[in-house]
């Protein structure tokens, strides 16, 4: 009776057929969309009582980075709709994180100023952002996180001049524009470990 010939030693078995790849997994925009959903789920799990949403934190970070500014300047810098920004500023003022004061250079307009309470709230929000990024990007090495951030900034800079690099080099190969550094700081950088320091 015939028998199967023994497999030659040292020859590994071929890998199993993974089957057809989901076409959506080949679309970077779909992957970014799913990553945003994962970030929201992770944030809700880590910080279910979070009261500072990204728009609020971005305004605080903007004022911390640039100093007192008019509401119009904040709107233009962060590209927030002026109508939407009114509600954000009202909420921050109610929390005593921001105050409106007469602009000393133009008494006809008000400038937004960050309070000590707002600075502390931003510091704590940044630390939560660092924890979120550590959890979200846990599978990646530091080098891989740097690569991801560099590639994302390159794509964003192609579509939005706010993300265009400044003169000089950062540790990920590009320095983000001043208009976006504040917003990135509000989230906590995906490539920086350790808690944020008070600004």
**Fraction in beta strands:** 5-15%
How many structural domains does the protein architecture include?
Answer: 1
How many strands, what sense, and barrel or not for the largest sheet? 2 strands, antiparallel
Per CATH, the architecture is: Orthogonal Bundle
Helix/strand-derived category reads mainly alpha
Shape: elongated
Topology-level CATH name: Arc Repressor Mutant, subunit A
Following the backbone from N to C, one meets helices and strands in this order, namely: HHHHEEHHH
How many DSSP helices? Answer: 7
Give the N-to-C terminal Cα separation. 83 Å
Q: Quick one: CATH class?
A: Mainly Alpha
Brief digest:
This protein has 199 residues and is mainly alpha-helical.
Describe the protein in words.
Mean pLDDT is 80; it is low at 167-176 and 189-199. Helix content is 51%, strand content 8%. It is elongated and about 80 Å long. A two-stranded antiparallel ribbon has the order 1-2. A hairpin with a 2-residue loop joins strand 1 (98-103) and strand 2 (106-114). It has a single domain (51-194), classed as Arc Repressor Mutant, subunit A (Orthogonal Bundle), CATH 1.10.10. Helix 1 (28-46) crosses helix 5 (116-136) and helix 2 (54-66) crosses helix 5 (116-136). The N and C termini lie far apart (83 Å). The longest helix has 21 residues, at 116-136. With 199 residues, it is mainly alpha-helical.
